[in-house]
Amino acid sequence: MPDRAPQPVDRQLPTDEARDLISLVRDIAQREIAPKAAEEEDAGHFPREVLTLLSESGLLGLPYDSEYGGGDQPYEVYLQVLEELAAARLTVGLGVSVHTLACHALANYGTKEQQVEHLPDMLGGGLLGAYCLSEPSSGSDAASLRTKAVRDGDSWVITGTKAWITHGGVADFYTVLARTGGEGARGVTAFLVPGDAEGLSAAVPEKKMGMKGSPTAQVHFDGVRIPDDRRIGDEGQGFAIALSALDSGRLGIAACAIGVAQAALDEAVAYATGRQQFGRPIADFQGLRFMLADMATQIEAGRALYLAAARLRDAGRPFAKQAAMAKLHCTDTAMKVTTDAVQVLGGYGYTADFPAERFMREAKVLQIVEGTNQIQRMVIARHLAGPESR
Fold this sequence. Notes:
By secondary structure, the protein is an alpha+beta fold. Helices cover 51% and strands 14% of the residues. The protein contains ten helices and ten strands. The strands form three sheets. The protein has a four-stranded mixed β-sheet. Strands 2-3-7-6 form a four-stranded antiparallel β-sheet, with no helix packed on it. Helix 7 packs antiparallel against helix 8 (320-345). The chain is globular.
C-alpha cells in the first residue's frame, strides 16, 4: 500500500510566536517521538530523555510566567501543543499535562519566595512532577482522602498512601494533598514534596492495558518530614487548590484525547486510500467514506470545544462547566474514533503491526483519569440544575 502522509492540522493560532512554537513541536514529534513510540510502548520504556529535551526546549512550562522560566503562552496555545505531542505518543503528551498540573499549585498559590526558589527548576530546569490526590479508598470522592500531615514544630510529617500516580517513582517532586484538619474538603492542605525525601517510596508500577511506557504507581509516605515553607497556600485551602488545578487539567486530557483521535483518523485514511479490494481503494466505498467523515467531524467538534473552554480560561472567565464538557466529549470521541479506526483496518487493525489497536487501548484510560466521565456529567448537571437534593 502506498504511503499517505497525514496533513498537519490547520490550526487557528493567535500569534506568529505560537505558529513557530507549533512548528518546533511538530519537528520534535516527528524526529524524536513518533518513530520510537510503538517499540518503546511495547517495551514499557519511559521516555525521560524526551521529557528532558522538552524541558530544554522550553515546553514544560508553557502556560506559566516567564519570570520563573515559563513560556507565557495562553492555554489555547499550550493545549494545541499537548495535542501535537499526544498524537505522536500519548505517554509524552499526558506526561507534559501531568507535569503542568503538578506545577499549578505553586505557580498560582505559592508565596513569592517559594516561586523564586522552586519554579525555575520545575518549569525549565529538567525536573519532572507528579500530582498526588487519589488514594486507594478515595478516587472520585477525593474529599475523603486519608493521608495525614501532622505539624511538628516548624515541620510537617506526612503519612499515607496515594494511588494511580502518573510518574510515581520517577518524579522529582510531588504536589501532595494531605489532611491537616477535620473530615471533608476543609481539612485538606497542599504540600510540595521532593522526590528524594526520606520515607517516600513507590510501589511496583501498575500493569496497564495501554500507556505501558508511562509509570503509574502507588506512592507511600512513611513519616515524610518537610519544612513548613513547603506548604502551599493556607492550611485547609488544599482542596480548593486541587479543584482549580483539575479544571485546567481536564482541558489537558481533552487535548490529549483529540491528539490520539487525530492520529487514529490519519492512520485510517492512509489505510483506506491505499488498501485495494474489488479493484479499487476501499475508501471508494460509501460505508467507509461515511465512517471517515463522521470521525473527522467528531474530532473537529472536540477541538473546537476544548479551545472554547481554553479561551474562557485565558480571558479570566469561569470555565469549569466547559472544561468538564470538553473532557467528556473529547475522551468519548477518542474512544469512538479509535474503535472505528480499528474497524477500518479490519483484521490488520487488531494486530500490533499497525498502531490502531494501541490508540484504542490508550483512548480508554482518558475516559477515566482526572475525573471519570460519569463525574464530568455530574459536574455539568450541577451547573445546569444546581446541587443534588440530600
